[in-house]
User: Fold Protein-L-isoaspartate O-methyltransferase from Ulvibacter antarcticus.
Amino acid sequence: MKDTFTHRGMRNKLVKILRKKGITNPDVLQAISTIPRHLFMDSGFVDHAYVDKAFPIGAEQTISQPYTVARQTELLNVKKGDKILEIGTGSGYQTAVLLEMKAIVYSIERQNELFKKTKLFLPKLGYRPKKLIFGDGYIGLESEAPFDGIIVTAGAPYVPNPLLAQLKVGGKLVIPVGDAVQIMNVFTRTSATSFEKEKFGEFRFVPLLEDKN
Ligand code: SAH
Assistant:
């Protein structure tokens, strides 16, 4: 597990690319310039770790494209100490970005293989989520609700109601919604009973699977 001067140089280039693509939040860019993304990927893909692309992480899943991670995190408006729920732990890269931003992170993954691998891996890099859960993201995490933010890192065919219900007033749900292509939706809870909805362009994610799949 090595992070070299060369890797750091590549990360700085990636940050420049993300800035050009419109990412402005300095904490998000700082997190991306700090986290050794190559260590989150299968060894065969290490050379591709710092291009702005998604890559396979095993179990038919992908580590999201850096731009997507950056954009979703920016839209979530994470502040230090915020309680955040992530759906789709995967490689743990997005989890690490949230932890770099000093959030308190809960994350749910439905693939046992990935769940176990990432649970062992993150602490090796010094990343300590509050809780990693092996379970179904469609139901959220009622026992720890409400959250300042919920981020879904897989394409949802619809917006699961429990995720809206588990937001604090003022909290945000960032969720890509759609089948082949997803539209990034941001819901802000404006009161106990009302939400404001905004849309932020097209993205492509692996599907948020329901238990029957
Ligand atoms: N945040 C991850 C992205 C991984 S891809 C990263 O940075 O690497 C999306 C992940 O969502 C996959 O690991 C997939 O197994 C998981 N997933 C799919 N459906 C899910 C569900 N219903 N509940 C929880 N996780 C789910």
About this structure: Residues 149 and 172 are 5 Å apart (CA to CA). The chain has a mean pLDDT of 95.
